[in-house]
Specification:
CATH topology of the largest domain: 7-stranded beta/alpha barrel
Family: Belongs to the glycosyl hydrolase 57 family.
Mean pLDDT: 96
Keywords: Carbohydrate metabolism
GO molecular function, one term: 1,4-alpha-glucan branching enzyme activity
InterPro entries: 57_glycoside_trans_central, BE_C, Branching_enz_MT3115-like, Glyco_hydro/deAcase_b/a-brl, Glyco_hydro_38_N_sf, Glyco_hydro_57/38_cen_sf, Glyco_hydro_57_N
Number of domains: 2
Strand content: 5-15%
Radius of gyration: 24 Å
Protein name: DUF1957 domain-containing protein
Shape: globular
Amino acid sequence: MRREPKGYLALVLHAHLPYVRHPEHEDFLEEDWFFEAITETYIPLIEVFDGLVRDGVPFRLTLSVTPTLAGMLSDGFLQERYLRHLEKLIDLSGREIERTRWMPEFHPLAQRYHRMFLEARRVFADQCGRNLLTALGRFQELGVLEIITCGATHGFMPLMLGRRNAWRGQIRTAVFDYRRHFGRPPRGIWLPECGYEPGVDEVLAEQGLRHFIVDSHGVLFASPRPKYGVFAPIVCRSGVAAFGRDLDSSKQVWSAKEGYPGDYEYREFYRDVGWDLEYDYVRPYLHGDGQRTNLGIKYYRITGPGNHKEPYSFERAAEKAAIHAGNFMFNREKQVEHLEGLMGRRPVIVAPYDAELFGHWWFEGPQFLDYLFRKIAYDQQVLAPITLSEYLAVCPVNQVATPSVSSWGYKGYAEVWLDGANDWIYPHLHQALERMIELANAARRGDFGTDALRWRALRQAARELLLAQSSDWAFIMKTGTMVDYAVRRTREHITHFSKLHADILSGAIDEWWLAEIENKNNLFPEIDPLAWAD
């Protein structure tokens, strides 16, 4: 008989991508972010969950699915494009089987990739009916997965000038959209970039949310200081609980020097056939502009710190993933045993990660999770996996405190999202927000009456503001990758918003142009522009 655990492990995966949808182009490079994440992260995670449920393994995991990602996963246009993308990979991997026939170090790998892509098509098209949200919703109904939400477009709350209208617009839109996809309200939220400032929790409570996550220092520097550190949630005066990230479990996975993903047996992310093979051979699988890009077939392992790379082995990498899962579990056991003795109550170790780390960046990540949950279930009795809502039910009495202003990322206080490379966007975002509040107040007063075209334009103005507020654009400008695209997207949404604002006030709506941008930026069909009203 299994005894009561001494503590809990709350694994939290944050599944997020910015909204990238370009029907005006035949194909679009940035849409590959979405396609790669489906093939390498979301489908492998679903397969891991399926196997655990099938085998009766009592696992628990919290997964945030951001509204932009949910919008893309449920979009028929992008679903069709993903299938087209997958068919190319199936064709390329079939050709690779032939090309590597007399290359014993690569031929088994080519066969594995071909099977992997065929299985991805089966899961996506046949098992999930092209919408992966159906599979995730099923795991939530089974009670093994808690799906939480995020800001509507991952807008960074602390840089919205403390305007509750802005927070409410992001959060209410997210809650409405979650209910549309999953048929129930969310209980928790991953604040975008873990960005918190006092008052945000009051808007969360207003919208029915019960818990959120902050980085370690958000809890450690709370007022008053928390008795149990990050190993128990604190409860804001609004009644919403804040969970803090555990540093030790994070370092074991995130650290570039000490983290598991850097092990030399694991697959090398930066060696891809899109760059390694002759151009004429890979040209049919590239985008229309012909630029080389990653195609998803990678034959080498990390090997070492230098440029020399040796062939990858699925089997050796799987063995190392099992070893690392055992090591991670052992460290959490010792951590729980120590903490339970100090605290006099069952601690919770909150381990949040970007979901795309598991599979896309760390190819073996889903295997690691599979081994970890199986080992926790059968190889120890010290700790148990738990979701955040379940922990609040098991341990409902917690200290009242106010988290500190904080974020995750470099230095932990918003510096990534407010920097010399991206600070120019904020005057435009702030002005657009003030104008949105002005429009929402006018609509609430009845200034627009029942003018259906004006209300359509108002709803689209809200969408364009939300899309402009996405923290992804500032992040990309800071990191220096795909900067032109991030700048273009910011300017495009601000320009759309400005024209809509002027047209709504004048009553002269360009219906043809409105329909065009509604078709392109078509997320949040149930958006409520009055969320921005005072």
